[in-house]
Amino acid sequence: MLSLGAIGFVTPLLLAALVALPALWWLLRATPPAPVRRMFPGISLLLGLQDAERMPARTPWWLLALRIAMLAMAILGLSGPLLNPASDVEQGDGALLIVMDGGWASASNWSARRQEARQILQRAGRSGRAVHLVSLADAEPDLAPRAAADWLGVLDDMQPMAWAPDRAGFAEQLDALDDIGASIWITDGLGDDGGLPDALAALGRVEVVMPTQTALALAPARFEDGQLVTHVLRAPNAAPQVVPLQVIGTDAAGVERVLDQVEVTLGADEVRNRVAIDLPLELRNRVTRLVLAAPYRSAGATVLTDDALQRRRIALVSSARSGEGQSLTEPLHYLRTALTPVAEVVEPLLSEVLDAAPDIVMLADVANFSDDERNALQDWVRDGGMLVRFAGPRMAASTVGQMERDPLLPVRLREGGRNLGGAMSWGDPKRLRPFPQGTLFDGLALPEDVDVVSQVMAQPDPDLAERTLVALEDGTPLVTARDEGRGRVILFHVTATPRWSSLPLSGLFLEMLDRIARVAQSGEQGAQALTGAIWTPERVLNGMGDIMDVQRLAGVSGERLADAAPAPDAPPGLYRAGVRGHAYNVTDDATSLQALELPAGIASRGYAVRAEQDLTGPVLAGALILLLVDILATLALGGRLRPAARAGMTGLALMLFMGAQDVKAQSVRDDPGAIYATSETVLAYIRTGDVEVDRISRAGLTGLSTVLTQRTAIEPAPPVAVDIERDELAFYPLLYWPITDAQAPPGPEAVVRINTYLRSGGMILFDTRDTHLAGGSEGPGNAQLRRLAGQLDLPSLERIPADHVMTRAFYLLDDYPGRYVGAPVWAEASLAPVDLDGVPFRNLNDGVSPVIIGGNDWAGAWAMDDQGSFIRPVGRGVSGERQREMAFRFGVNLVMYVMTGNYKSDQVHVPALLERLGQ
Amino acid sequence: MSSSSEALQATARRATGGLPPLLAQAERLAATVVLGDHGRRRAGMGEEFWQYRQAIAGDAASTIDWRRSARSDAAFVRQTEWSAAQTVTLSVDPALSMDYPQQGETKRARAAVLGCALSLLLVRGGERVALAHPALPAGGGRMQVDRIAEMLSISQGRDEYSVPVMPNDHSGLLVVLSDFLAPDEVLVPALDRLATQGQRVVMLQVMDQSEEAFPFDGRTEFRSMSGAISFEAQRARSLRDGYQARLAARRDMLRTRARLSGWSFNVHRVQDPAGTALLWLHRVIEGERR
């Protein structure tokens, strides 16, 4: 096959005949048109006359051009032109190997990739080749060859994985395949090729399908200066784009929702864009993950947050064991009250404090430690812990840190303390000085009513001033701090209770604690924190970036998590070891995305935007039309076209032109679709834009219409496709809406129209078509459904109860199977049943549930082609046929329910009516 | 009699309807002394009374008109007018060029109808009619008309063109129905010959409209009716003016010759009604008589 841009030729050899065109040109030029012969007796008078005007003896140039064009078209037509020709890699000997990357980077455009693979499979199926279909992200890819048609079902179920494809590993396995004739690699365009192209090239022809746009990723999130910071990563040489970044977390009710959304503008060639998000601490603590919203969703564009971002765990320890009923004077009461909203508070014993893995340890008037405790605390602080201590009578009475510097105190203390404003003292209670600039509490509002009556005093060392965070009017420190190793020690020179000062009663106290909690680092950082423990996955990501339940995943060693990227044995997700959590993301801080660079000599192409089209017919028809034009032109030239015929021709041309005008005009006047939809009962489906899904939807509704016509009084006309953004919905009793991941949510006008439609008695059957992927919980389509239907005015739902009208509108049903069975099907929640005439009777609203939601792929089960044979397989053998029959019965019941409402529900009154009639 | 000649007669009778009997002027007496209905304005054999004259010696007694003689002393002889029939020779062009146009009524058919109708009129007026081609001796009565009709309906020459020739028996009048398209070098001498012999001629040029209008265009190969002569025009349209000029010149020539010789000439188109031409012929022949 020869390819010229968008047009290819099946038999390019025929094109050699085009060389003959100049010869034809010469021949045609040399031959004048034959003269008209005419009997004429007046010839005796003509003899000897000279005609001044000579008829052109040669064919006029336009006729020549016409004829050459005609012949050229005929040659082109016979050489089998194809528009958008697919490459001919599918043709040839040997098996065809289709390699899909299938990793997270393939997720954002998964439908397109799958469509591409499906087209390749269909073409390979036409040429009858054996096919290997391999997803590189599969842990154990199925390497056996099969017929192309058999792979279609597998392809439908194929989902992108949450890790990167293992190209190098597969390249090594390629030796086992010896029957490969050619291979096609549908790649995600990112990363190292792993030697795969060369390995494939060694087997035969290779074609690489590159994506139009490579995937984006998010770097792990961190807190810097109280801001949530992440980076949007992408491969070099990309165009500027705007990417929506969503911060997702649980709300107060525990329901996951988008907490914040920012638009990230990526400039050209910007590969690492820093995004900083300001969040209130309340919200910040609830953040579970950051995602790039559709259409960029993928596991790589999802960053889970773990302890490092989540609520600080604060351990409160006091030396005094309080008695009952003294809560207001209990040393920890004020701390506990202040910290509980913003942090997770634990109160272990001092000896066990570090076992709780706290981020902050607060010691209220603890003066003495055992050596073990002291050493452990010192190590912990040096490793980045934050120790906050409060003074108190015990500390004042002890001699701790008076002579030498105590590592667990920021400053040296003077013995005893001092009292101010008491009965035995001279001075008044002291107030606070404004906070020095650049210190921890800079910027907090200084209340007037905080006064201090007692404090422990610091030795006036030279570095006292720089360690002082808060001082009193007289310059004596109230709060001091010192960095110790990577951690920090903070000392409040007063108690955590109002006994020494009114600070714990003020709002300032809350804000100070909040600041401290914010700056505290997460307890453990880096690889060594992971090592030595077995981490069990708690929640894992799928390739699309959705959070899945963990199924049959063993624990993973910390070394594995620390050293290697996600792979089938350790999918990205949240891992937990004891109380510690770890977010194992696709990316780490060092990740940068690299565009895939193919070795020289490997052919690559983009997605086949449009399906291949055979142009033979149109081109040959064009040649034929030119031939007709040529006949007329020749006649006209020879003077044999009589005036009447000429007038007729003109009239015909005029009529054609007017006809075209008329059609155009008519389409403005009447909407034929509306007339069609209102003159018959018509089932409709939402056009999703996915060609295959739309085809199945149409075929499914066609099949259902056929069955309805055969079995019931409803005889629907052939179904129509509805564009949710443009078309009027009011004409259709039932809309079938298959959910695909490529659909955009409806626009505002469409939402209004759909809501009006639902309120005025319409029904939409949502079909997520993913029961087979769900595995007991909800499938991937549900997230899509939520995204699409989120703005719709849907009622509260319930699983269709056993006594719902749906179960007996025409057939008696107890399940609603489609191609898949078992998933719950939801409808509008009905009211509680009323016991009426001894029979439970649901006093349903008179209408019909506006939505039925399920995932059983009903259209797939109904789908029937023009010959009346089924398109998609259902189940196996006889039970499969039975299941299809039940699917049709569900369809019949559904349409009956839509058409007749709760009519059948009224049948419960029949016994009572009969009884009365009998009397 | 063939059916086509019957049809021809029927058409001819329709064309003659309403015309008064035609009496050809008897002018020439010399050669053909045949009793006819035309008085010769002199005493002779005839049925019409001409004059009484005094009997002279030598008159047969039987010729004396006793009734007239009784009214006077002298004897009178009754003389009748010498009446003789005129012979009109019809020359209907037999050439192939008369088989035009190829669709619709041909010039030949029109000429035959006119000739037949004319002979019918003449016979009804007591004249004798002869045919020039094919040669048919003069005669009168219905039988002669039948014969003429039959001859005309089968007559077709083999020549491309033909020219009028002197009739065999010197008839008083030669009526030529032709398209006069023969080449000049043939036609002119023929007409000269007729003129020098003193033949009186009535010429009616029968033509098709397309021969006058020349509505042709494009590259055209013109052919004579037998195909023997051909002429290729590169663009027929450009020949129109030259052709029409030549046609006009031909007609001028005919008209001039007619005026000089005391003949009559007119043009008749196939598309025109035949009655007009017959009326003209009738009037001209009657005028020739006066």
From TrEMBL, chain A:
State whether keyword Transmembrane applies: yes
Q: Does the keyword Transmembrane helix apply?
A: yes
Report the transmembrane regions from the record.
6-28, 61-83
Report the residue ranges that make up the DUF4159 domain in this protein: 683-899
> Which residues belong to any copy of the Aerotolerance regulator N-terminal domain?
7-81
Recorded hits in Pfam families, A to Z, give: BatA, DUF4159
Any idea which UniProt keywords this protein has?
Membrane, Transmembrane, Transmembrane helix
Would you tell me the protein name for this molecule? N-terminal double-transmembrane domain-containing protein
**From which organism does this entry originate?**
Pontivivens marinum
Automatic annotation (TrEMBL), chain B:
Residues covered by the DUF58 domain: 51-251
Question: Which Pfam family is one of those matched by this entry?
Answer: DUF58
Q: Which InterPro entries match?
A: DUF58
**Organism domain of life:** Bacteria
This one is known as DUF58 domain-containing protein
Tell me the organism: Pontivivens marinum
